[in-house]
């Protein structure tokens, strides 16, 4: 019995010693995330409630359910300082972005472009200043019951 336990313990200890080395090697092979992408993702995550509210307001009259906006479905088109010139850091920003809200298992309902301003002058620091519906996508047959005209008159 002792003879059988020793090989198992030996194999287990060799495995445990090799695991950290394998993990470190795997981490070195993975590309490092750019800081710019990380900062964009932070900004999108902080703006997501305002983006979701704008999408809900627009689709309220079209759909019986609110479409969802996922952070990875948001593309920042432009970000700029509204005030401040060369060498002067102003803290009023304008961010233009596009998103494709979805229903159910990621069925896109359309494409929307909006501009949000961020400023210490606003009570909530964030304000939707423009919303434009760019494109409407046709829903699959099994999701058409969510169209407001069909949902209200079955």
What attributes characterize this protein structure?
single chain; 154 residues; alpha+beta; 4-stranded antiparallel beta sheet; two-stranded antiparallel sheet; 3 helices; 6 strands; 38% helix; globular
What does this protein look like?
There is one protein chain. This protein has 154 residues and is of the alpha+beta class. The protein is built from three helices and six strands; from the N terminus they run ααββββββα. The chain has helices at residues 2-29, 35-59, 148-152; strands at 74-81, 93-99, 102-103, 107-108, 110-118, 126-136. The strands form two sheets. Strands 1-2-5-6 form a four-stranded antiparallel beta sheet, with helices on one face. Strands 3-4 form a two-stranded antiparallel ribbon.
Identify low-pLDDT runs. Answer: none
Distance between the termini: 74 Å
User: Which percent range describes the beta-strand content?
Assistant: 25-35%
Structural class by helix and strand composition = alpha+beta
Order of helices and strands: HHEEEEEEH
Taking Cα atoms only, what radius of gyration do you get, to the nearest Å? 25 Å
Oligomer: single chain
Q: What general outline do the C-alpha atoms trace?
A: globular
Helix segment tally: 3
Strand order of the largest sheet: 1-2-5-6
Largest sheet: 4 strands, antiparallel
Mean pLDDT: 83
Number of strands: 6
State the share of residues found in helices, binned by percent.
25-40%
């Amino acid at each position: 019995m002792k003879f059988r336990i020793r090989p198992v313990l030996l194999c287990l200890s060799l495995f445990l010693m090799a695991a950290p080395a394998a993990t470190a090697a795997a981490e070195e092979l993975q590309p490092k995330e750019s800081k710019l992408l990380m900062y964009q993702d932070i900004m999108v995550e902080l703006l997501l409630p305002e983006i979701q509210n704008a999408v809900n307001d627009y689709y309220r009259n079209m759909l019986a359910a609110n479409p969802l906006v996922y952070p990875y479905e948001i593309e920042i088109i432009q970000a700029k300082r509204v005030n401040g010139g060369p060498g002067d850091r102003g803290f009023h920003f304008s961010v233009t972005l596009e998103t494709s809200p979805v229903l159910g298992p990621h069925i896109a309902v359309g494409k929307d472009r909006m501009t949000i301003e961020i400023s210490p002058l606003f009570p909530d620091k964030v304000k939707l200043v423009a919303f434009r519906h760019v494109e409407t996508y046709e829903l699959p047959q099994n999701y058409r019951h969510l169209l407001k005209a069909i949902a209200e008159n079955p």
